[in-house]
Design a protein that fits this description.
This protein is mainly alpha-helical. The protein has two domains: 30 residues, no CATH class; 32 residues, no CATH class. Helices cover 38% and strands 0% of the residues. The chain is built from four helices and no strands. The radius of gyration is 24 Å and the shape is elongated.
């Protein structure tokens, strides 16, 4: 199929003020990005930590860190 499809899949969520359906292009789940199409990100501290651990620069930093010196770095910078 070349070119644009004849009929795009629309979101279909209704506006409260106008009572008209949303005409935005729907994603795979049937809703547009404004009406439930995209994730809003992690909410819990566990989810935020899991997302942080998936970042490439965090993974690289953890690989470069020596596992034997992890406890020593925090003790060395202590202000007590």
């Amino acid at each position: 199929m070349v070119g644009r499809p004849l009929h795009k899949k629309e979101c279909g969520a209704y506006a409260r003020s106008t009572r008209l359906p949303c005409k935005a292009k729907a994603l795979a789940n049937g809703k547009c990005k404004l009406h439930g199409g995209l994730s809003t990100g992690p909410k819990t501290p566990e989810g935020k930590l899991k997302a942080l651990m998936n970042l490439k620069h965090v993974k690289d930093k953890l690989k470069r860190q020596d596992p034997c010196n992890i406890g020593e770095t925090s003790a060395r910078h202590s202000t007590i």
